[in-house]
Amino acid sequence: MLSKNDIKKLYKNFFHQRDNYITYINNIKKKNNNFFSIINITLISNPYISSFSRDWFLKKEKTWTVVLYIKSVVVFYFKCLSKLFVFLLQKFIVQFLFERKKIKRGSILIDVHLLSNKVITSGVYRDDYFPGLYQVLTRKNIPFVFLPRIHGLGYNPVNFIKLLNVLKTSNNIFIYEHELTSYYDILKIFFLILLYPVQIFSLFQKEELFNYHLIKDIQFQSLEAFTRFYSGRKITTIQEISSIISWSECQVIDRAFNFGVREASDKKITGVQAYLNYPSYFNSYVYDADNDNHSSPHKVLVNGDYYILNHFYRRGVSFRYSELFKFVKDKQVQKELLILTSCMLDETQSLIDLIQPLAQENQQFYLLKLHPTQNSNTFQLSKNFELVNNSLYELFQRTQLVVTTGSGTAVEAVACGVSVVIISSQSNLTANPLIAYGKGEIWDIAFSHGEYIDKCEELLQFRKNNIARIQEIASWYKGNFFNEPTEDNIIEAIGLQ
Questions:
Q1: Mean pLDDT, residues 108-118
Q2: How confident is the model at residue 332 (pLDDT cuts 50, 70, 90)?
């Protein structure tokens, strides 16, 4: 946990020096254009995997040691080599137990995440990342196939078989990384894994802090960085696939796949960022350096006009936010307070730790909606919290103020006319998706217990006396951060005319 002074210093330095940080990272990328630099954790700069960006803004001084290097390498080898063995076993299962359906010529490849537990439990496959897209493709007789990025299987081959059995009953066609990656590719991956900790030294800079994190971050590298690269290369050999639509956060798995495709062919990749981004989510932004080293999509479709930052970006549609365009806020006064948690466990725990004692002391009661990836048994909750599973927009009708941290739901709330208090991260860069517009009116940020109470009271008082201004701000956010996923808008964004 950071001290109160460090939390405020980090937040202040972030906004004043963000452009300098981005320039620093991009200059290193420009000088290093190879597979190992493409997948490097520190250079990709996801602040929730590598703490380099946090330490850079705090101006920390750290120096790597041989002990740190050995520790990182041992963890990396154990993790990646054990997962490579599991990947090989899964390849046997795919090859000998399952047969791929025939792919139609002119098919679009949909590269998207798949949560295995959700599919196995429900017994059906339904993609929640691009709802609405598939109906449009079907009506226009455009075939499509899925390349699922499977999450949550662990080391259990039985669960993998269960997942494949569910997907086998689907009308959709799936291509698996295991069938795209040959046995010779797996052998090459083995040697790339061995080389990865050695080639780190070629990225060394004069700044010791960067070198320290290069060494520390070795342990965070994943097997998917290597398998996705070879999957991308092999996809280019399937002539029936005409183009690629890829859910894009420009993380390791995205960049490795993009690099594999773009190094091997001229197939076009359309990256889709149909989510509410954060200024601190550095890895998700595409710059000239990323395009030059072939780690980015050819173009990126964003959730709303606000996110169009340079020539790589195009107006997309808000695939996952169609309910927002049907929502009309009830004008009756809603007194309930709503807590929305992020997908990050530590941030959720910090949020609960801050609010729970205040709620008990003041006899306040909150609605608590946990992120779908979290379990209520993980947390010790008082009777002041009522766990709810209602739809987000139903909850927005019941509340006038949302408390959250590290969640895009803050933008949804504001766009629906609900006030928001962002709780600053106590250990990292604050993932705040809101911007200066409306600050102090419909939203604000709190760095401590005392500030949280003050901000809540100030926002509630403002909305009580300025409902027209609240509606004006909400309309602005809705118009700039979202684009309704109508059929015409989907056709225009994807380029299906």
A1: 94
A2: low
Q: Do β-strands 419-423 and 107-115 pair in parallel, antiparallel, or remain unpaired?
A: unpaired
Domains of the chain (ranges; CATH) run: 1-321 (no CATH), 325-481 (3.40.50.2000)
**pLDDT tens digits for range 157-175:** 899 999 999 999 999 999 9
pLDDT of residue 497: 67
> Given the DSSP bridges, would you call strands 241-247 and 107-115 parallel, antiparallel or unpaired?
parallel
Is residue 167 within 8 Å of residue 125, measured between CB atoms?
yes
pLDDT in tens, 41-90: 999 999 999 999 999 999 999 999 999 999 999 999 999 999 999 999 99
* CA distance to 69, 191, 201, 207, per residue, from 197 (Å): 9, 11, 8, 19
Q: Which residue has the higher pLDDT, 354 or 205?
A: 205
b/e sequence 103-139, b meaning 16+ C-beta within 10 Å: beeebbbbbbebbbebbbeeeebebeebebbbebbee
